[in-house]
Amino acid sequence: MSRPVSEQVARSERKPLYVKVVTQPALHGCWSVNISETGIGLIATPRRPSEGPHENEPVEMAFSLPDTGAHVRVHGTVRWRHDTAGAGGTVAALGISFGAFDAADGVKLARYLATAHLQVVVAFASDDETRAVRQALDGVASPHFAAAAEDVHALLTRGDMAALMVCGQDESRALALVESLAELRAEVDPTGAGPPSDLAPRIVYCAPAAPDRLVALFNAGRIYRALGPWPDPDVLREAVLQAGREHGFRTEQWRMALELERNLMRERALAQTPVVGVGRHGEDVGFRSPPMQRVMEMVRLVAPHRVAVLLQGETGTGKEVLARILHRLSGRGDSPLVVQDCGALTETLLESELFGHVKGAFTGAVSDHPGLFVLANGGTIFLDEIENTTPNLQAKLLRVLETGDIRPVGGTQVRHVDVRVVAASNRDLGEEVRAGRFRADLFYRLNSFTIDIPPLRERPEDIPELARTFVEQFNRTLKRSATGVAPDADEVLHGYGWPGNVRELRNVVERAVLLSRPGEMLTRRLLPPALLSNTVPRADPTGDGSLRARLQQVERDLIREALERHGGVLRRAAVALGMDPVTLGRRARRHGLWKAE
After folding, report:
1. Which residues contact 581 (CB under 8 A, 6 or more apart)?
2. Are strands 415-416 and 420-425 parallel, antiparallel or unpaired?
3. CATH no., domain 456-531
4. Is 290-452 a CATH 3.30.1330.60 domain?
5. What is the rounded average pLDDT of the residues 449-460?
6. I need a labelling partner for 422 at 20 to 30 A (CA). Which of 361, 375, 444, 592 fits?
């Protein structure tokens, strides 16, 4: 297997790719809906809910790239999966990150994404129209010409066409083709024979037709643009490009909707389970430093009161964990806790997600959506990275905080909700207000109770307990048996600056547990090299500078280096040091550097 393609080329945007995908474990009716150099989005129609890979499980995939015919095989990991029951059976959506490709398949994919144009079907074009279309679309789209309706349908089953141009001078033939494609507007093909039809190609109509007939087709969503016979080349090019952009937007909107729905379901489940670092009754396990003790005192003080809370701190300090503790201690623990990252969506999508929308409010709003504030009614909503919201959205959030009234996008009915708002920011919102990037009135409303969370480097007393908690957690999830953190590793953890805070510590411990042998303590050799090179040695707290203490330190360093150099194999390290393996094992255990399996 080759290294991941993300290490070979720069990351690209997601692009539509509607091709059949074969997976192992097998998924029935599996299609790609988008792809980038680092991952792929899939839909499938499993015969049963347990079919195929699930979240955090490995998966092998094989698919062909359109036009080139290149075959790609790749190993990946399922980052999320969402199953929805519909009239035609279960539909599964999966987000998969790429791991390693077979041979040069990663390079094939990177080249394809770098050179791929919009794929356009051109139906019924005459020889003169064919030449005009080629000239108009040169460099921006790849036209595929079809002389018969059967050829058009065959090209569309490839699944990667972003637009369909209907040409020719035969009005009845052109309109019959448009009508025959109406079936592609079904919500999802229940047979698994094709991609989601809401993502079907947009039709650019360039054939003759009566104006009233074109208006009816446009209003019914059957055609995207009507240009008439022999349109101007610039107009034609722009229409195709707009159809492609609309197609890509709908693809991204569809993918985002699935991810949002899946994240909401996960948050509901998490609200009913214990939080890492929090005891069964909400006690502050893992927080032993005086700064965090003061933070916990403030959390316990404000939790029972319906007051908006603002959590401020660097990324990774545990703001969401504190929001969950606050929710549990608020008396609303049996009601939903809904989490939304305000930096993950555009203003339009975020407004729809928070406040909901009514059917027909915008393109793609095929049904009413209640919104997260309604779903959190009676509970708590956690708005992370609130500094990324726009002034327009901030005004609407202020109204919700002051009145509790919600009006969905495109709706006229107002609904009152009882929701506790907890907001979080990675930046000082006071400074954001002074810089004109955040509304002062919303800040003052949120600033009624602000809790500043100190970074991990200012509370090193929390590191041992947090590390122990993470070791226990990853022993369970990774099925390992690490027995704790050795003194040499603990020294490194204390000497590091932790720019990523608790999140970075968690990732470091996860890696070490994964690399550990059965029954082994987490030693210095299991830590990332970047951590070792950026560690400031910790001063001896006892101040013992005696010859005996210094000799013991020298012995400990020599044994540690020998074990690291020989991959932790005690016998090889003993040969290198000229020692008896039994003697070396006894001394290594005394220094906490080795534990017999």
Report:
1. 570, 571, 574
2. unpaired
3. 1.10.8.60
4. no
5. 90
6. 361
